[in-house]
């Protein structure tokens, strides 16, 4: 039985995307009419937790992280069974989440304020921070463990309670987190809630929520922000991406293409930081298309639980239809399928799609502008650096970008002008554990609710103190 999961008679069946007839687990949904009681209990837990010294909180959260690590194999299997990614990727997700958590816990004893010179004699002026309160973390299905960990760990370290809502496709990892939290942390401090969009909207709009950290699509993120604005809750949105990799020149093109492939096809392309546009100098276009296509053709999608699986299924029938639709419309617009471009039949009826490379793509095609969220890479040729930067920035999103070049002038321009929150030079689009995970434009709203030192701005409130001797 699941601990710390609110229940009623409504249930959600979760199926294996590699074999949709297989029911992996059944979860009870959180009753909407019980949210007031839930929020009351969480508020009481948070009030007590906030009084615990921050270094002490950090030490207890570290034990929580250790206990989660001890169940890493179980968490990884739940991820693979519910979401479909290969076990190797699921284990990598868990390991990275643990690493990020420890980087956050290390900040538990870091300074949280500043001393200022005062204009008034005899006055000591300084700033300090307090826990924000009760945090709502709404999570996506593609990283069902690492994303809620990015929300829960800083929330706890900085003295908050947190309510976690997983995507309906992948509740297992958060349910396991809640079980471990019940064993290690004070009661009701971490709560898992199960349900669909109606639950997320009801929680975001509840006056008992002090801040909402949302990761998901732009459309749903906007609805969450509107709901939270009704009671002026702080909001952090981590949204989509249409991430470019510019290949201007490369001393080792094969190494660059290996990195691009990893960035593009990890998690079957269902990653907000996935490279989806390869913007290549026309002199290298043929070599890049041929190299990417050969690598894509060597990838064999299979059940993620099978030993040696490198790429798994898409997460749902809807995702499969969406990806197939993007490719079909791209071809109708004039794109050429250099590799893949088709659904893959399987004995289990799994949601498999061939890793796809599209050449002949132009900047105005739908596939070059909108987020596909699948194993599809579009190759766009350019002639000048001016043109490359224009193409890279000419989308609504601004999450992650990559450049492959040995030219200092091109690198400096890219770093200065790339409209992305995370900028990579001669490296794939993978964030490090201790750095901010940030976006600009339609990729994000609000201060960081995820990795890095700036998380303190979201999970705490700032206070200015003016202190004098008695009058």
Walkthrough of the structure:
The protein has 14 helices and 22 strands. The chain has helices at 35-50, 54-70, 72-83, 87-105, 146-157, 172-184, 197-204, 218-229, 253-265, 285-297, 317-333, 385-393, 408-417, 455-459; strands spanning 11-16, 19-28, 115-116, 123-131, 134-138, 161-165, 190-192, 211-215, 234-238, 243-247, 275-281, 336-339, 343-344, 352-353, 356-359, 376-382, 397-398, 400-404, 422-425, 440-441, 444-445, 460-468. Helix 5 (146-157) links the parallel strand 5 and strand 6. Helix 2 runs antiparallel to helix 4 (87-105) and helix 2 (54-70) crosses helix 6. The N and C termini lie far apart (61 Å).
Report the biggest beta sheet as strand number plus sense, adding barrel if it closes: 7 strands, mixed
Number of helices: 14
How many strand segments?
22
Determine the mean pLDDT: 95
Characterize the quaternary organization of these chains: single chain
Cross-sheet strand order for the largest sheet: 12-15-16-11-10-18-19
User: Gyration radius, to the nearest Å?
Assistant: 23 Å
Strand content: 15-25%
Portion of residues within helices: 25-40%
- Low-pLDDT runs of 5+ residues are 1-8
Write the layout of secondary structure elements.
Layout: E1 11-16, E2 19-28, H1 35-50, H2 54-70, H3 72-83, H4 87-105, E3 115-116, E4 123-131, E5 134-138, H5 146-157, E6 161-165, H6 172-184, E7 190-192, H7 197-204, E8 211-215, H8 218-229, E9 234-238, E10 243-247, H9 253-265, E11 275-281, H10 285-297, H11 317-333, E12 336-339, E13 343-344, E14 352-353, E15 356-359, E16 376-382, H12 385-393, E17 397-398, E18 400-404, H13 408-417, E19 422-425, E20 440-441, E21 444-445, H14 455-459, E22 460-468
Parallel strand pairs: 5-6, 5-8, 6-7, 8-9, 10-11, 10-18, 11-16, 15-16, 18-19
Antiparallel strand pairs: 1-2, 3-4, 4-22, 9-21, 12-15, 13-14, 17-20
């Amino acid at each position: 039985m699941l601990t710390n999961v609110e229940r009623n008679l409504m249930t959600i069946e979760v199926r294996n995307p590699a074999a949709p007839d297989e029911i992996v687990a059944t979860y009870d949904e959180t009753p909407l009419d019980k949210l007031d009681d839930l929020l009351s209990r969480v508020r009481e837990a948070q009030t007590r937790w906030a009084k615990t010294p921050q270094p002490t909180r950090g030490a207890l959260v570290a034990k929580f992280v250790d206990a989660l690590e001890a169940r890493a194999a179980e968490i990884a299997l739940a991820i693979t069974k519910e979401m479909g990614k290969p076990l190797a990727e699921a284990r990598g997700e868990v390991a990275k989440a643990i690493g990020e958590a420890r980087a956050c816990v290390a900040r538990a004893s870091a300074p949280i304020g500043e001393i200022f010179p005062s204009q008034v004699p005899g006055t000591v002026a300084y700033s300090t921070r307090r826990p924000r309160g009760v945090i709502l973390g709404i999570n996506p299905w593609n990283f069902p463990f690492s994303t809620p960990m990015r929300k829960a760990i800083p929330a706890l370290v900085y003295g908050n309670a947190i309510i976690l809502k997983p995507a309906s496709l992948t509740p297992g990892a958060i349910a396991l987190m809640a079980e471990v939290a019940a064993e290690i942390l004070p009661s009701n401090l971490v709560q898992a809630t199960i349900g669909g969009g109606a639950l997320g909207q009801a929680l975001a709009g509840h006056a008992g929520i002090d801040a909402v950290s949302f990761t998901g699509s732009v459309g749903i993120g906007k609805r969450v922000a509107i709901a939270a604005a009704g009671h002026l809750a702080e909001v952090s949105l981590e949204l989509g991406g249409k991430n470019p990799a510019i290949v201007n020149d490369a001393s080792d093109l094969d190494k660059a293409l290996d990195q691009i492939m990893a960035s593009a096809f990890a998690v079957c392309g269902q990653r907000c930081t996935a490279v989806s546009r390869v913007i290549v100098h026309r002199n290298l276009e043929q070599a890049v298309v041929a190299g990417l296509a050969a690598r894509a053709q060597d990838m064999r999608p299979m059940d993620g639980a099978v030993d040696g699986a490198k790429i798994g299924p898409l997460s749902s029938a809807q995702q499969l239809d969406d990806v197939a639709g993007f490719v079909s419309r791209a071809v109708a617009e004039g794109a050429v399928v250099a590799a893949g471009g088709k659904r893959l039949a399987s004995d289990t009826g799994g949601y498999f799609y061939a890793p796809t490379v599209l050449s002949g793509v132009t900047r105005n095609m739908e596939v070059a502008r909108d987020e596909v969220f699948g194993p599809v890479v579009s190759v766009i040729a350019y002639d000048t650096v001016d043109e490359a930067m224009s193409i890279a920035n000419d989308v609504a999103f601004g999450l992650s970008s990559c450049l492959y070049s040995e030219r200092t002038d091109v690198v400096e321009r890219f770093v200065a002008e790339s409209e992305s929150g995370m900028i990579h030079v001669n490296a794939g689009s993978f964030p490090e554990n201790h750095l901010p995970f940030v976006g600009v434009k339609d990729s994000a709203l609000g201060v960081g609710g995820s990795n890095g030192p700036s998380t303190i701005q979201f999970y705490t409130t700032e206070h200015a103190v003016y202190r004098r001797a008695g009058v």
